[in-house]
Amino acid sequence: MKKTIMIAAGLAMLAGCGNNDKDYDATGTFEATEVTVAAEQNGALMKFDVNEGDEIALGEEVGLIDTTQIWLKIQQAGATKDVYQSQKPNMEAQIAATRQQLAKAKQDQQRYKELVADGAAPSKMLDDATNQVQVLQKQLDAQISSLSTNTNALNKQMAATDVQVSQLQDQLQKCHIAAPIKGTVLEKYVEKGEFVATGKPLFKMADTEQMFIRAYVTSAQLKDIKVGQKAKVFADYGDGQKKEYEGTVSWISNRSEFTPKTILADDERADLVYALKVAFKNDGYVKIGMYGEVKFQ
């Protein structure tokens, strides 16, 4: 019904738009980009400085959801990471003894090799020394492999803890309620101290600086209108009082709409109209829902 009335209002003074005695080509109502800000976390509203009509800057913090539990979880995750860090083995210290034994065994192997070459010792002593070197080398390799596996496992657990902390920090950030756009608060849905759940609407705001008028034109007019075209926008305050703004056609519908049958005369029922938007910069005087006029250049 709202859309029907809007189209009718846009066409009420459009039937004779081709006449030169009119200073407008289309009429419509003023609109703005509206955003409903919702809670992104569960908890009590510890702070909520929002009132209808307030002007809020982009990114301005206007509320805070209780962060106590999330903060405690971050502290717990940090302590868990410290435990994993303390469990990491000191590889060099644990394999130092085996390395020393291996170095001594290699020295004995070299000594026996020289003695056997000189015929001063039996070859069995060299074989035993070589076998000892091989055993100690395998022990060292096994120790290094085991310690590396434990270290890698602990590193992965620490990395998982870091991810958990990042997730909690993201949740903590989402407890801070900030304006997603620059604009004016239109409606307020909650009060400070209330418990809010994720997804619950908190307030609605609109960009009342960069506004647009939604108007409707006939197919005959459409051939002379394109996106990017300049236009004059007039805010109608009644009793012949108007305020002019420079605008630009920012959008034209690709689909036609039938003129509402319940509003217009029989000879106008079959007319097709097209919705379009003309964007302009508001100086604070144009309000959402006001009627206005458009003159295409």
Description:
The two termini are 32 Å apart. Strand 9 and strand 10 form a beta hairpin. This protein is α+β, with helices and mostly antiparallel strands and 297 residues long. 38% of the residues lie in helices and 32% in strands. The N terminus is likely disordered. Helix 3 runs antiparallel to helix 4.
N-to-C SSE string, H for helix and E for strand: HEEEEHHHEEEEHEEEEE
Q: Please give the share of residues in helix.
A: 25-40%
Structural class: alpha+beta
- Quaternary structure: single chain
**Count of individual helical segments:** 5
The main sheet orders its strands as: 1-8-12-10-9-13
Largest sheet: 6 strands, antiparallel, barrel
Residue fraction in strands? 25-35%
| Backbone CA Rg | 39 Å
Poorly predicted sequence stretches spanning 5 or more consecutive residues: 1-20, 260-267
Give a quick set of tags describing it:
38% helix; alpha+beta; 297 residues
Entry summary:
With 297 residues, the chain is an alpha+beta fold. The protein is built from five helices and 13 strands.
Q: Can you lay out the helices and strands and say which pair or pack?
A:
Elements: H1 2-11, E1 26-38, E2 43-48, E3 55-56, E4 61-65, H2 68-87, H3 91-117, H4 123-174, E5 176-178, E6 183-188, E7 195-196, E8 201-218, H5 219-222, E9 230-238, E10 241-252, E11 257-258, E12 272-281, E13 291-296
Antiparallel strand pairs: 1-8, 1-13, 2-4, 2-7, 3-6, 4-5, 6-8, 8-12, 9-10, 9-13, 10-12, 11-12
Helix pairs in contact: 2-4, 3-4
